[in-house]
Amino acid sequence: MIRVEKLHKTFGTGTRARPVLHDVDLNIAQGTIGAVVGPSGAGKSTLARCVNLLERPTSGRVWVAGTDVTDLPERDLRHARRAIGTVFQSANLLRRRTVAQNVAMPLRHLGVTAREEKRRVAELLERVGLTDRADDYPAQLSGGQRQRVGIARALALRPKVLLSDEATSGLDPAATRSVLALLRELRTDLDLAILLITHEMEVVREVADTAALLREGRVIESGAVHQLVADPHSALGNALLPDRPVSLDRPGLGTWRLTYQGRSVPTDWLTRLGADHGLDVHLLSATVEEIAGQAAGRATVAVGHDRADELTAALDGWGIHAEPLPPGHSGPAEEPAASEPAREAAAETVEGAVG
Ligand SMILES: Nc1ncnc2c1ncn2[C@@H]1O[C@H](COP(=O)(O)OP(=O)(O)O)[C@@H](O)[C@H]1O
Ligand SMILES: [Mg+2]
């Protein structure tokens, strides 16, 4: 697991002191992917560097795979870092070495025999689907393939945790998907705890089990992805599943904003409202995505005021959350319960994702 408690990080001292992380808590269990999202400059990479022991926290504690690594003496750092694999935005491969030689790098100086090394490299390349590229040079590979080599290298010492700092930034959508699919596979097969740093909500949607929103060095919101998307007042939830609720201003009709997630919700809930409950439902907006392996949706509907109780009872039975939407509402969701900074941060993160 990766556990961070009350982490503070300040660069420099005195008048040059620059606080970058404030009171950050984070928990990523084995076999899960925890995303940390936030705009550029939020402190994401600094957080990753405090976890992989490239930076020392100013205060607070860090655990990696059950070991408190906060106060390790200098001489133990090298050993402790072996439990942590890291993948960066550019895989940082050695240009003059082959794929196989790059993957073997961490195994050198460990007294591994040539035969063992060969076996291990073959195993790693198979893991990441690059067996046939062992003798190629990095320049002969696509960006996505280079990242796979970086991942194979990061796994060479059988780490318990993997850090990925913007590993898919700059990759095209197909390469991004294939790298994310690989991370998902590794999480499960190797029971890794993966800290996934990204500024792209799409990446979180695709693979994360939990997510934390970092802004100006603070965790503004965090939770399980399936719970965040089911919460109409969550800034992260809104960024993961953006919708544009609109109210229908017609006499006798009330507008409802619906939020749902999970298997209990039938995919034909709209049809059933009409067929089984005799409700005349106006569909005003809707968005449905598969998130965290399950359908998640947001919709606005309008029904007659006199049928409101039947509507909410039926929705409630399926686990669809319903809230009345005030008349005259249009455009992106407005969230009275979310704090102002959280909302702004979510909007920014989404912009980062599309821009
Ligand atoms: N070694 C350092 N010395 C001083 N300031 C730093 C150092 N590393 C990062 N920072 C500052 O910390 C802030 C957060 O940076 P970073 O963690 O890279 O953010 P992110 O990865 O979210 O874009 C930035 O303002 C950056 O300039
Ligand atoms: Mg960064």
UniProtKB/TrEMBL annotation:
Statement: the UniProt record of this protein carries the keyword Amino-acid biosynthesis: no
InterPro entries reported for this sequence: AAA+_ATPase, ABC_transporter-like_ATP-bd, ABC_transporter-like_CS, ACT-like_dom_sf, MetN_ABC_transporter-like, NIL_domain, P-loop_NTPase
A single GO molecular function term of this UniProt record: ATP binding
Record region (Disordered): 319-355
Alphabetically ordered keywords of this record: Amino-acid transport, ATP-binding, Cell membrane, Ligase, Membrane, Nucleotide-binding, Translocase, Transport
The ABC transporter domain, residue ranges: 2-241
Alphabetized SUPFAM superfamilies for the sequence: ACT-like, P-loop containing nucleoside triphosphate hydrolases
Range of residues in the leader sequence: none
Keyword ATP-binding attached: yes
The protein's name in its UniProt record: ATP-binding cassette domain-containing protein
